[in-house]
Amino acid sequence: VTINWSPNSSIVAFSETGSAQSAFGRQEIFLISPSGEAVGAIIVEGSNFSSIWSPSGENILYSIAATSNNDRPSLWLVDGSGTDIGSGRQELHVETWVEKCTFKDEVFVLCAVPRVVPNYSGFDHRIVTSGDDLYQINLTTGRTSLLAELTVEMQMHNLSVSEDGGRLYFTDEFGRLNTLALR
Fold first, then answer.
1. pLDDT tens per residue across span 115-160
2. Taking the model in full, what pTM does it have?
3. Strand partners of residue 37
4. Minimal CA–CA distance to 45: which of 77, 78, 68, 17?
5. For residues 123-149, b (16+ Cβ closer than 10 Å) or e, as one string?
6. Are 111 and 94 in contact (CB under 8 A)?
């Protein structure tokens, strides 16, 4: 069970205690209410599930180690509220981990994406040695755009967008704070 409060506090955790859906890594993840009851489930196409909520709590952005892609990381989006929990699941075709992403708003997600993603790295991003580039994903259209190719080879962690949406703050692999102007 992983504690992960939704913005409206209707969900407090995710439980990976659901039944395996196939022998190929598909699994059921339960969403747990404050009373401890499962109030819905999502089906994921791999293991090493990790997630973040959209600012409104309407959607869940998650990553898994995709069995179908040599256990490389795979980013997905799914409905996360009301009677729609678990529906609208879509693969975003971006090879990164949700820990390297942040919501800019309800429509746009910013993600640090490694230039080289080795097989089996979906289980642990620390085995990646290449630097990252910054991508923006439009969740309405599914379009992914390169926002910045960093001139210095570095990995980006702990992404956070300023309140006015004009700057991205992140730490590098040495824990140093960096900033990047957003268009």
1. 999 999 999 888 899 999 999 999 999 999 999 998 889 999 999 9
2. 0.91
3. none
4. 68
5. eebeebeebbbbbbbebeeeebeebbe
6. yes
State the Cα–Cα distance between residues 77 and 94, nearest whole angstrom.
11
Contacts for 53 with CB less than 8 Å, ≥ 6 apart: 4, 5, 6, 7, 59, 60, 61, 80
What are the tokens at 137? Answer: 């994903």
Instruction: Give the pLDDT confidence of 93-104 residue by residue, as tens digits.
Output: 999 999 999 999
CA distances to 36, 59, 120, 154, 156 from 100, in Å: 29, 17, 17, 13, 7
Task: List all residues 6 or more positions away from 38 whose beta carbon is below 8 Å from its beta carbon.
Answer: 15, 30, 31, 32
- Quote the Cα angle for 57-79-44, to 5°: 120
Size of the chain in residues: 183
Per-residue model confidence as pLDDT tens digits over 24-55: 678 889 999 999 999 989 999 898 999 999 99
- Determine the Cα–Cα distance for residues 39 and 83; give it in Å rounded to an integer: 9
